[in-house]
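Structure in, sequence out. Go:
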């Protein structure tokens, strides 16, 4: 009797960013690193919530991300 072969698709780490699931080969180390990827060069006019909790700018570098975390990024816009 032959043993069936099982094929596994290995996925990287995942985050849900603004309600869209994104896969990363390597999960960014912290919230600041994620924002550098998602919004390069921008730090002003951004509000961030991690798993439905607002995270102040002062602790972005200390805020560790985990697989399947939900991140909401809101940016200010100009206009009338």
């Amino acid at each position: 009797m032959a043993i069936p072969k099982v094929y596994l698709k290995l996925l990287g780490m995942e985050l849900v960013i603004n309600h869209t699931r994104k896969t990363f080969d390597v999960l960014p180390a912290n919230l600041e690193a994620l924002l550098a990827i998602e919004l390069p060069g921008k730090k002003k006019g951004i509000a961030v919530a991690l798993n439905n909790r607002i995270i102040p700018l002062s602790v972005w570098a200390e805020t560790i991300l985990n697989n399947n975390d939900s991140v909401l990024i809101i940016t200010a816009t100009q206009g009338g």
